[in-house]
Design a protein that fits this description.
Layout: H1 2-22, H2 26-51, H3 56-67, H4 86-105, H5 110-121
Helix pairs in contact: 2-3, 2-4, 4-5
């Protein structure tokens, strides 16, 4: 009986640690969602800048400032070959990151949210995080 109790306790502890390792804390979830929303806002602002027909250098400088420390690459996470149709590409990636924020806040698994993000970015952004620097 004693051995069974010890085995049961060990099994319960292993399951607890496994669940804790998989998930993120409430604080991390909130931070992830905020980072996705910030990147979505930066990409949306870039679209508006291009639609106003502002000089590309102006839009790019604003974009870089908005994405500093948040996204990778010269174009705030966007692949260089997607730059040709920047407004459309940034619209799509903004929607992808907004969707990722909603997914994370809904408590869906990281795997599900990552798959949704990658699918929504459709190869427009750098890396598996759709241009975003991974925080943890």
């Amino acid at each position: 009986m004693k051995k069974q109790l010890i085995a049961l306790v060990c099994l319960a502890l292993a399951a607890t640690f496994s669940i804790a390792a998989e998930g993120h804390s409430a604080k991390e979830i909130k931070e992830d969602a905020a980072r996705h929303r910030t990147l979505a806002a930066a990409h949306s602002a870039a679209v508006q800048c291009f639609e106003r027909k502002s000089p590309t250098d102006t839009c790019l400088a604003t974009l870089k400032a908005s994405c500093s420390g948040l996204a990778v690459g010269k174009y705030c996470g966007l692949k260089q070959d997607a730059w040709g149709n920047a407004a459309k590409s940034f619209t799509q990636t903004a929607q992808a990151h907004q969707g990722a924020a909603v997914c994370v806040e809904a408590g869906k698994s990281e795997d599900v949210c990552m798959a949704d993000l990658q699918s929504a970015c459709k190869g427009l952004a750098i890396g598996k995080f759709c241009g975003m620097v991974h925080a943890h």
